[in-house]
Amino acid sequence: MKNTTLGLLAGLLVSVAAPALANDSVTAGQDDPKQWTMQLSNYAGTSYSELDAINKDNVGDLQVAWTFSTGVLRGHEGSPLVIGDVMYVHTPFPNMVYALDLNEDGKILWRYHPEQNPDVIGVMCCDTVNRGLAYADGTIFLSQADTTLVALDATTGDVKWSTVNGDPTKGETATATPLVVKDKVLVGISGGEYGVRGHLTAYNIADGSQAWRAYSTGPDEEMLVDPETTTHLGTPIGADSSLNSWEGDQWQIGGGTTWGWTTYDPELNLIYYGTGNPSTWNPSQRPGDNKWSMTIMARDPDTGMAKWFYQKTPHDEWDYDGVNENILVDKEIDGEMRKLLVNFDRGGFAYTMDRETGELLVAEKYDPVVNWATHVEMDPESDQYGRPQVVAEYSTEQNGEDVNTTGICPAALGTKDQQPASYSPKTGLFYVPTNHVCMDYEPFRVSYAAGQPYVGATLSMFPAPDSHGGMGNFIAWDAVSGEIKWSLPEQFSVWSGALATAGDVVFYGTLEGYLKAVDSESGEELYRFKTPSGVIGNVFTYEHDGQQYVGVLSGIGGWAGIGLAAGLTNANDGLGAVGGYAALSDYTALGGQLTVFTVPN
């Protein structure tokens, strides 16, 4: 591996000089709004900042302060980290890392350039994205595309240790950000479109040794569940709950990958994450509920043992991966303060749950065009409790193999994909970047071969009919009442992560390349700026030398922008996205740039 040290870091967290448990250093970082030490700003995943120097009264005066080119022309997801006086910037494959000195106009202190087999690009489903770095105790953690987890010295960029989390020859890759909890770093796996069996794995941050691994499917002991105490909607899951929901040994290639976000409640000592689609996309080939794909999982981070599950889409028929972030907030419901988990699922339902018990409290559509299910059954006495009620017309299983089911809303990329929502404790609202896209879906029979696509469906995507004509909305959501408070139509899907601030401003980016700022109460647009390429990164903010800055990575790609990123032209390529987003090329081009803004003094 190549590493060039060009300088020394300055101004790191105190915990670097006096190492503490990783949770202490991460907590210190998330509690300091001047820094941006976690991808979603904090363990709760709220993507919220207490900084308010940039506010709704002056945000219209934003100007570009400085820029940085990453040198990579693929989809740029996630955001940089800011630790003290240093910014850490990551790239898509080949997953370079830059340490930039904020005291010297972004001078490169060191760069890390891993040597990876380029063959891994061919087994990355939806672009060569990476969702960002993690930090703890003077160490930067990077999960490379080839599944190598690397611990880098934050001061020098030197490799402290590395370990391999999967096998790309079997279709196993990595796109998600790690999460550090206590003395462990947690990392997921990608590859549901290759029949990969999903898992979340914990490694000891001291030396990279494996602490535990929890599979999404299979025997109880490999899933780290107790059939008598692990619950689903309050009921013990029972012995062999996963095995009994698959035909034969299909669970071994059953998907349920873990390429989304993980959040953590230190008081309950529980981590929360989601599992992806079952393999294959042809539902006729895998009868049963296919547990525990499409599931929110709550686990003990010390042991990996599961406390509760909630399967959002049993026997998925549409590729509605359940990996989106679980935002943790405390709010009053029916006069009682509750510890809540809020999840905006790909399938178009927003779930509000009790994060301690897994009780389902709210399940409502956050885009009115969602039509594949009428509702989620909320009666605990019903045998359908917690299950979406599928509409036969849009059921790819009921319509059968080699039948094109038309007009399904949302499309496979969901009402929201991985792009994180934000939450403002000032308004009590969630701000959600969404896709307003529908699809036609034709499943066909497919055979499994290790390292080869295991999809089994042909898709085409298009804007939701009889609507505003665009493919996205940016919405404000009330998670207690289950209602949209306001909605801003967008020409294309909103594929960037949102940022809410104490300045009463919410920021997000668009696929055409705009950074936008809106009033958190009304949704009124206050500012827009066209960056060099489409924005699929997450907006972040920090303070340096008494000045607040807002930044975002631009670089078109991801699933929505895969046509541009990979040079694809067939409308059905990119798992159906190329045709749906063909017009993007009229508005933006490839890029890889960080743009940082401020309001001049």
Automatic annotation (TrEMBL):
Entry binding sites for Ca(2+): E193, N277, D319
UniProt GO molecular function: calcium ion binding; oxidoreductase activity, acting on CH-OH group of donors; pyrroloquinoline quinone binding
Matches recorded under Gene3D superfamilies: Quinoprotein alcohol dehydrogenase-like superfamily
Cofactor binding note from Swiss-Prot or TrEMBL: Binds 1 Ca(2+) ion per subunit. Binds 1 PQQ group per subunit.
Active site: D319 (proton acceptor)
Signal peptide positions (record): 1-22
Cysteine pairings via disulfide bonds: C125-C126
Cofactor(s), names only, from the UniProt record: Ca(2+); pyrroloquinoline quinone
Keywords attached to this entry: Calcium, Disulfide bond, Metal-binding, Oxidoreductase, PQQ, Signal
CC per GO annotation: membrane; outer membrane-bounded periplasmic space
Binding site for pyrroloquinoline quinone: E77, R131, T175, T257
Record Pfam families: PQQ
UniProt domain Pyrrolo-quinoline quinone repeat: residue ranges: 36-369, 494-550
InterPro entries listed in its UniProt record: PQQ_b-propeller_rpt (IPR018391), PQQ_MeOH/EtOH_DH (IPR017512), PQQ_rpt_dom (IPR002372), Quinoprotein_ADH-like_sf (IPR011047), Quinoprotein_DH_CS (IPR001479)
Family recorded in the similarity comment: Belongs to the bacterial PQQ dehydrogenase family.
Protein name: PQQ-dependent dehydrogenase, methanol/ethanol family
Species per Swiss-Prot/TrEMBL record: Paracoccus alcaliphilus
